[in-house]
């Protein structure tokens, strides 16, 4: 994030996306007793009301294993990402884009650091676009 204007305090990030001097994004973090961020609230228009939420779950090594996203802050989870780690610590991610319990995309990284995304339904169109649009990837 190059346009991050202010870090008010640990746990809250403020962004002025269009640089008009008023805050557009407020990101609020909630941490558990281990210091892991377990919930994130996003206020896209800076009106003080959260517009989207995300919830994170960790394994015993403190690595994120599940990210649940409520894109419209209505209390219902809209998409879920599952993270798996191999013995080398490499991560692969499974995206359930519509939170129906079925994985829609699998993202994996090879030994050269190249990331490939596989659509489990066999469709290749728009995958990158979809992934890019998956809520929260820029954070
Ligand atoms: Ca808002
Ligand atoms: Ca929702
Ligand atoms: Ca799905």
Structure description:
This protein is mainly β. It has one domain (4-133): Lipocalin (Beta Barrel). The protein contains one helix and ten strands. It has one helix at 127-133; strands spanning 4-9, 12-15, 25-31, 37-43, 52-58, 64-70, 79-85, 91-96, 105-109, 115-119. Strands 1-2-3-4-5-6-7-8-9-10 form a ten-stranded antiparallel sheet, with no helix packed on it. β3 and β4 form a beta hairpin. The longest helix is centred in the C-terminal third of the chain and has 7 residues, at 127-133. One calcium ion (CA) binds at residues 70-72, 74, 76, 78.
Q: Key terms for this structure?
A:
Lipocalin; mainly beta; globular; 44% strand; disordered N terminus; 1 helix; 139 residues
What's the arrangement of secondary structure elements?
Layout: E1 4-9, E2 12-15, E3 25-31, E4 37-43, E5 52-58, E6 64-70, E7 79-85, E8 91-96, E9 105-109, E10 115-119, H1 127-133
Antiparallel strand pairs: 1-2, 2-3, 3-4, 4-5, 5-6, 6-7, 7-8, 8-9, 9-10
The chain binds calcium ion (CA) (3 copies).
One calcium ion binds next to loops.
Largest sheet: 10 strands, antiparallel
The gross shape turns out to be globular
CATH class: Mainly Beta
First-residue to last-residue Cα separation: 8 Å
- Write down the overall mean pLDDT: 77
Low confidence ranges: 1-10, 135-139
Structural class, by secondary structure, is mainly beta
Order of helices and strands: EEEEEEEEEEH
Question: Number of folding domains?
Answer: 1
Number of strands: 10
């Amino acid at each position: 994030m190059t346009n991050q204007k202010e870090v008010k305090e640990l746990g809250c990030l403020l962004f002025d996306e269009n640089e008009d001097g008023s805050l557009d994004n407020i990101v609020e973090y909630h941490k558990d007793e281990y210091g892991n961020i377990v919930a994130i609230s996003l206020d896209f228009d800076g009106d003080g009301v959260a517009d989207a939420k995300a919830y994170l779950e960790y394994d015993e090594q403190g690595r994120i294993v599940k990210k649940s996203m409520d894109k419209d802050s209505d209390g219902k989870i809209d998409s879920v990402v599952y993270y798996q780690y191999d013995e080398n610590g490499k991560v692969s991610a499974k995206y359930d884009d519509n939170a129906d319990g079925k994985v829609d995309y699998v993202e994996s990284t090879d030994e050269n650091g190249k990331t490939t995304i596989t659509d489990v339904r066999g469709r290749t169109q728009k995958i990158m676009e979809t992934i890019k649009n998956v809520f929260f990837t820029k954070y």
